[in-house]
Amino acid sequence: MAENVLFNPGDAIAESHDYNEALRSADIYNAKQGRKRGILIARPLEEDHGYSVFYADDLIAADGPKPATSAKQYQIEKRLGKK
Predict the structure, then answer these.
(1) Helix/strand/coil (H, E, C) string of 1-59?
(2) pLDDT by residue (tens digit) across 16-37?
(3) Residue 20 placed within a domain
């Protein structure tokens, strides 16, 4: 089952049109942080292309109250590091 969440697009630590490139960026950030912070690769629901890399603790629950920020809906593709 797909997990849909909200993120502020400005919180992305990397973006790419290619999944493998996004995964490589996520691995680099994960290595720099010593796996202390979880990393997520997510795909925006309103767009047919592209992947963004976020820190897991920046996640906003999609079923919670709507945030005051300009959050967009994403679908989590992969989780790396701390959960």
Answers:
(1) CCCEEEECHHHCCEEECCHHHHHHHHHHHHHHCCCCCCEEEEEECCCCCCEEEEEHHHC
(2) 999 999 999 988 887 877 667 7
(3) yes
